[in-house]
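User: We ran a pulldown and think these components assemble together. Before we commit to crystallization trials, I'd like a predicted model of the whole complex to look at. Sequences follow.
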Amino acid sequence: MLNHQTKVFLTYSFMILLLLIVGFLQSWNVALAILNLCIISAIMSLGINIQWGNSGIVNFGAMGFTALGGLCCVLISMPITKSAWQIGGFYILIAIVIFFIFIFLTNIVWKLLKNSPKKRVFYSILIFLIGFIILRLIADPAILRIESFEPAKTGYLGGINLPIIFSWPIAGLLAAVTAFLIGKIALGLRSDYLAIATLGISEIILYFIKNEDWLSRGVKNVNGLPRPVPYEIDLQNSSWLIELTEKFNLSPVITSSIIVKLSYSLLFLSVLIIIFILFETALKSPWGRMMRAIRDNEISASAMGKNVKKRHLQVFIIGSAVVGIAGAMMTTLDGQFTPASYQPIRYTFLIWIMVIVGGSGNNYGAVFGGFLIWFFWVESEPLGLWLIEFLTSYLDNENIIKIHLLESAAHMRLIMMGLILLLALRFAPKGVIPEEKRI
Amino acid sequence: MDYINAITLFANYIFIPGLSYGCQLALGALGITIVYTVLRFSNFAHGEFMSFGAMISILVMWYFQDVGISIHPLPTIILALPISIILTIIFCLLIDNFCFSYYRKNNSESVILLIVSIGIMFFTNGLIRLIIGPADRNINDGERFLVKARTIKKMFELNEGLAIKMSQCLTITITILLVTFVFWFLNKTKTGKSMRAYSDNKDLSLLSGINPERVVLITWVIAGMLACVAGTLYGLDKSYKPFTYLNLVLPIFASAIVGGVGNPIGAIIGGFVIAYSEIIITFAYRRFLGYLLPDNLLPESLMQVLSTDYKIAVSFLILVIVLIIKPTGIYKGKLI
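Assistant: Here's a predicted model for the assembly, 775 residues in total across the polymer chains.
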C-alpha cells in the first residue's frame, strides 16, 4: 500500500499532467479556464468536506450559499441606483428592520412558551403572520416603484460601488450569518432530514433571489460586473504587451486573454492556499481532534463534556462561509450574476461527488476531488463523443441510432458523473486519497 | 353577492387543479414512503424513476401511434401504461441488484444509501436525456376536455366557467384505483403483511421465516409501479420534460414528511396538503372576493399572499416549518 504522502504526490502530479495535456492538445486558454473553475470547485469541496468529512453534517444547501455569494458581488460592486433609493430605499430599510424585529419577537415567544407546545406554535405563527402583513404593507408599494423605474436598465437598488474583491470576505460573512440562522433551525435534525431540510432551504434562498427584483434584478440578470483584473482590450493596447508579443512572435489577442486568466488563477490560488492552511491547522489542533471524536461517536463525545450542538453549529457556519466565498469568486469570474443558472445538480450534488470521490475527511482529498471532478465535468463532452463513436463504430453512418446517439452525446456528462460516484462508493468508499490513519 | 360564481371560480382554479396535482404528489410520496419504511433510506432517485416510467410510456405510445392503435377520446398513453410499468419495475430491480443490494448486505448507514441514490439520480437523468432528449413534449393526444368551460357557462348562465380536463379526470380515477390496490395489498394479503413485519422489526421477521429477498423484490415492484404511473400522469397533465422531474423530488419529499414519514396514509394526506397549500397561498383572490364583497369594499391589490413565482417555494416552506414544529408529521411516523 502507498502511504499518504506518495498518494498525494501521485494524484496531484496526475492532475497537473491532465491539465497540461489539455493545454497542449486543445489550447492553453481552455486549460486555464478549466483550472480557474477547478480551484473554485476545490474551495467549495473544502467547505463541504469540513462539514461532512470532519463532522458528519449532511449539508445539501451548497447551492443556496453559492447564490448568496453571487448576490454579494452585485451588492458590493455595482454602482448605486440613486433615484431608486430616493423613491423607495427608505421604506425597504424600514421593512428590513421590521423583518428582523419580528424574527426576534418570534424567537422570544418561542423560548418563553417552552412548556406549552401548542400555545408556542400558535403564538409564534400568529406573530410571524402579523409581521408578514405589516412587512408587505410597507414594502410592497416601494418595491413596485423601484422595480418599475427604468426596468430595462436598472430596476433595482444597485450596489455600493466598491472593488469587487471586497465581496469575497463579505460573501463569507453573509453566508455565515445565513448559516447561523439555518443551523439554529435545522441542525437538531438527523442526517436524512437535515439533508432534505437544507436542500429545501437552499431552494427557498434561490427563489428569493430570483423573484425579489428590487434586490438582485432577479431573472433579468446583472451583467457587466467590474473585474479585479485588467480587461483584455486594455492589455492589447498597452505597450509592454505589444513589445512582448512581437519579441516572441505571439498573437496579442490570445496572449492577453491568457494573462487575464492567469491573474485570476493567481488570485483564486492564493485564496485556496489560505483556506487550506487554515483548515489543516484547525484540523491538526485539539479542536480538529474534538470534531473527529464527535463525528465518530456523538454520544461518547458528549459524555466527555463536549457540547455537540454548539460544535456542529460552529462547523456548519465555517463550511458554509467558505462555500459562500467560492460562490462570490465564481460570479466574479463570470462577470455576471444569473440567478436562473443555479441548479442543485450543478451546485450541490456535484460538490458532494467531489468530496466523496476525492476522499472525505481529508483536505488533500477534497481539493483533488474538486479538481478531478470539475475536469471531467468539462471534458466529459468530448470524451463522451469519443466513447460513443468508439462504441458505435461498427454501425454505418446512416444508422438512426448512431446519429441520435452522436447528437445527444452532451448528455453523457450526467451518466459519467453518476457512474463515477457509484464506482467510487463501491470500490473506494473512502475516496481516492483516504483519510490518514491517526494513532 | 354572487355565491355561485364564487364557488365555480374556486372549483375551477383551486379545487380541481389541486386535486389532480395532489394525486400526482401522493403517488410519488407513497412510493418514497414504501421504499423508506422497508429499505430504510431516502430515495432521491425516485423522481428520476418517475421520469423513466414516463419516458417508457411515451416510447410505447409512439409505437402504438405508429401501428395505428388508438382509444380516442382517451389518450393513447393510458394503453401504454401496463408495458411501461413492467419495464420500470425491471429497471428498478436492476438498479437495486447492481447498486443498493451491496450496501444493504454490508449494513451501511442510511446516509451512504442516500448518496448512492444521488449517483443513480445523475445516471438515470443522463440516460433519459440520452434516449429521449431534453425537449418539452406534449403527450396528450386524446380529447383535451371532459367538460368545457363554455358549456357550463352557457348551461347555468354564469360569469365563470368550469373546465375539467380529461387528464385531471384520469389522474384522479387511476390514483384512486392504484392507492386502493396498494392499501389492500399491504393490509390484507400475506405478502403485504410480511412486508409490514419486515419494516417493523427486521430481525424478528427474519426469525419468523420471512424471505428478505422476496420482501425487497415486492417493495421495488410496488415502488416502480407507483413511480411509473405517477410520472406518466404528471407528464400527461402538464407536459413531459425530463428537467421538471428533478424539481419534483423535493415537493414529493415534502409530502412524505408533512404527512408523517413511514406512514402510507400520511403520504397521501401530505400530497394533498402540499398541493393545496401551494395553490391557495399563491392564488390571487381579487376576482373571488369581487363576487362576495360589495364594490366599495373591494381592495385595490391582487390579494395574493405570495406571488405565483413562489409556488414551489411554498412546499419547501411548509416542509421546513413542519420539520421545526413537528418532525414526525401529521400522522405520527418514524423519526429518521
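The two ends of chain B are 50 Å apart (CA to CA). That may be worth checking against your pulldown data before setting up trials.

User: Thanks, that helps.
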